[in-house]
Structure to design on (472 residues):
């Protein structure tokens, strides 16, 4: 695609995606990612339609991601490109869809096509090599998704060093550094932008992601970023290429306007490479015959999580018996945070539901317990309980006996799509080598905290999980 463009043959493939169509679903603002996908589709002879911002869509009427995706598939689109504020939302869309889904940015998780175009730009500017790179990262490393995707992309190449300098609040996410190091990347924190600039071939600056910071004003950020801005003084003595995913915030001015005219500036070339890259991507994805007709049915797998850590339901012990022997049938929620039981009663509206309830705070055993004669909890109710008190144990009582018992695990990333109650995304984990779990959707990893499950129960749960992303 690059060669065709540079030799003036942009439209040589203009009929390749004839009768193919792309839906763009942008729940968040975008200039480059959306328009470059549309341009790519147009230059290959395909069509595009969709929304840019949720105003005017049924999302304002509380339609879920799942149902919106089903409608797009029913409309016979061949591919979707989607941007959404929740981490993992695009993986969920891909699980629902019967057509390919391109991630145009999900929360502060990933922006993979940006990383592909960034790597392609570095490749072109670095004599077609991606090994032995020294890359500087700057601006807001903490709240942006481009930094995560780019540094993970760079980790696929040999002998890569990433250097960065930023305020702690805007620094590299804690989980990212060990992940990069485990993949062989050297990560170095320097004191100043000048220190970084002196040692790298590429400096990748980013915008403060104010939309993802709570309780911080633009004025706070301007102060915080003052010594980390890129101005002519910082680039003038270095043979460095300055990259940026764009947009630059013209008020914060993380890159001074005069630098835009300097020879170091590579970000507009980056943006053009985005069209070329997305053209190649869409061509590869859609250059095939046939399609799967729409069935109108949801895959039942989309209703089930794999997050219930099953425990062995033993004969009631002395203490448990105290609380279950006076209900024949119902549910006992155990190992709750002390004092959390009243909030659960309120949030589940148990008082008004004509159900017998006994909430109990047991300070002498350091926990609370909640007994109800409900037959079962819905997934939304289980999530509500786990939001209030992580990793509760749920006991099913039938005829005075515990017949089933599990710890309900929830992803701990509060911006994960599985945490949004009305989206109804079942929590799904996969197993990590260190004995922890990783969320299928936002890809954050955790160790299980419950002390109540035995080592054998934990082992058996981990063995039941897939050890990588499986197709749903
Ligand atoms: N780089 C990037 O994602 O830009 P947009 O927000 O304009 O799509």
């Amino acid at each position: 695609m690059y060669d065709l463009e540079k030799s003036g043959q942009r439209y040589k493939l203009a009929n390749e995606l004839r009768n193919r169509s792309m839906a763009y679903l942008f729940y968040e603002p975008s200039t480059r990612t959306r328009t470059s996908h549309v341009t790519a589709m147009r230059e290959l002879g395909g069509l595009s339609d969709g929304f840019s911002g949720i105003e005017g869509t049924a999302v304002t009427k509380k339609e879920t991601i799942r149902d919106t995706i089903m409608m797009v598939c029913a409309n016979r689109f061949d591919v979707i490109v989607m941007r959404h504020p929740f981490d993992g939302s695009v993986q969920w869309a891909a699980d629902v869809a019967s057509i390919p889904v391109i991630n145009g940015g999900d929360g502060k998780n990933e922006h993979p096509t940006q990383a592909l175009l960034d790597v392609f730009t570095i490749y072109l500017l670095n004599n077609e090599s991606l090994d032995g790179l020294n890359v500087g990262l700057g601006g807001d490393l903490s709240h942006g998704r481009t930094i995560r995707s780019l540094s993970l992309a760079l980790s696929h190449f040999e002998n890569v060093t990433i250097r960065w300098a930023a305020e702690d609040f805007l620094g590299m996410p804690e989980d990212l550094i060990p992940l990069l190091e485990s993949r062989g990347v050297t990560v170095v924190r320097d004191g100043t932008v000048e220190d970084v600039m002196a040692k790298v071939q590429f400096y990748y600056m980013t915008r403060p992601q104010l939309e993802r910071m709570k309780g911080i004003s633009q004025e706070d950020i301007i102060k915080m970023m003052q010594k980390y801005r890129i101005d002519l003084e910082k680039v003038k003595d270095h043979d460095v290429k300055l990259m940026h995913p764009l947009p630059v915030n013209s008020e914060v001015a993380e890159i001074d306007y005069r630098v835009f005219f300097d020879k170091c500036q590579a970000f507009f070339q980056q943006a053009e490479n985005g069209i070329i890259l997305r053209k190649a991507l869409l061509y590869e994805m859609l250059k095939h015959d046939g399609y799967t007709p729409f069935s109108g049915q949801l895959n039942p797998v989309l209703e089930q999580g794999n997050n219930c850590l099953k425990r062995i339901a033993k004969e009631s012990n002395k203490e448990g018996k105290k609380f279950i022997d006076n209900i024949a049938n119902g549910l006992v929620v155990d190992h709750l945070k002390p004092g959390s039981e009243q909030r659960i009663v309120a949030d589940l509206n148990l008082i008004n539901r004509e159900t017998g309830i006994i909430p109990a705070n047991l300070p002498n055993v350091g926990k609370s317990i909640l007994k109800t004669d409900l037959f079962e909890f819905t997934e939304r109710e289980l999530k509500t309980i786990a939001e209030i008190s992580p990793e509760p144990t749920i006991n099913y009582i039938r005829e005075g006996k515990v017949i089933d018992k599990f710890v309900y695990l929830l992803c701990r990333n509060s911006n994960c799509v599985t945490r949004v109650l009305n989206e109804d995304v079942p929590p799904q984990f996969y197993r990590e080598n260190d004995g922890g779990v990783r969320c299928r959707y936002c890809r954050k990893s955790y160790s299980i905290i419950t002390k109540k499950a035995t080592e054998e129960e934990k082992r058996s749960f981990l063995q039941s999980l897939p050890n990588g992303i499986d197709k749903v």
